[in-house]
Design goal:
The protein has about 230 residues and is α/β, with parallel strands linked by helices. The chain is about 40% helix and about 15% strand. The longest helix is centred in the first third of the chain and has 14 residues, at about 25-35. The protein is globular, with a radius of gyration of 16 Å.
Length: about 230
């Protein structure tokens, strides 16, 4: 999958159960629209969505499974249960929270990584990181790539954005790790997507600006109100 997405666009097609477009059928059609627009890969949430998308398009998929746990803030592919479900979906790559936060059941990231590699060696693994240290740790463990997905969404980085100060966080990760770095997180314009690739990102994932019309509408409304 990494070869297929190099220097190209991956569309994140997700809708949570409290959003208007929450439906595996709708997400499969969203993925088809993204393919027709030129996306070369899809990032999708849940076994059901991924299987529906697989019936609609032949693009490779980064699979995640978002699930809340009472004993941990980690919710992106947090445990072996989510890994097993995603492995059944047919996705080519699994992304998991690779921050240093406490995980459910006191399991460590290293344990989850080893379990996945040993049980499903055909799957590539993406580390969703929030800090440069997360990226370094993910590379040491053996992840195939890192993604800037969680920068701005953890207690340590809350309120920060990938593109603050002209993508300084992305540049720092690129300088620090040697595995492919995928840019993801609040990339809301074509110009921004082009910029992160010019800076050296291996690939770019765009989600809300493509697949969440309520967010797109809100940006228009806020601009008008200003």
């Amino acid at each position: 999958m990494l070869t297929q997405i190099e220097k190209k666009l991956v569309a994140s097609c997700q809708a949570l159960d409290n959003e208007p477009l929450h439906s595996s059928f709708i997400m499969s059609k969203m993925a088809l629209a993204a393919k027709q627009g030129g996306a070369v890969g899809i990032r999708a949430n849940s076994k059901e969505d991924i299987m529906a998308i697989k019936k609609e398009v032949e693009l490779p998929i980064v699979g995640i499974l978002k699930r809340d746990y009472p004993d941990s803030p980690v919710f992106i592919t947090a445990t072996r249960k989510e890994i097993d479900e995603l492995a059944e979906s047919g996705c080519e790559m699994i992304a998991m929270d690779a921050t240093n936060r406490k995980r459910p059941n006191n399991e460590t990231l290293s344990e989850l990584f080893s379990y996945t590699k040993e049980t499903y060696p055909h799957l590539q693994l993406m580390a969703d990181i929030a800090t440069v240290e997360d990226g370094k740790a993910a590379e040491r463990l053996g992840f195939d790539c890192v993604s800037t997905t969680l920068h701005g969404y953890t207690e340590e980085t809350e309120g920060q954005k990938l593109y603050d100060h002209d993508f300084e966080f992305l540049k720092s990760v690129l300088k620090t790790v040697n595995i492919p770095v995928v840019a993801e997180g609040n990339i809301i314009t074509p110009e921004m997507a082009k910029k992160v690739l010019d800076y050296g990102a291996y690939s770019v994932v765009v989600g809300g600006a493509i697949s969440r019309p309520q967010q797109i509408t809100r940006r228009f409304v806020e601009a008008i109100n200003e």
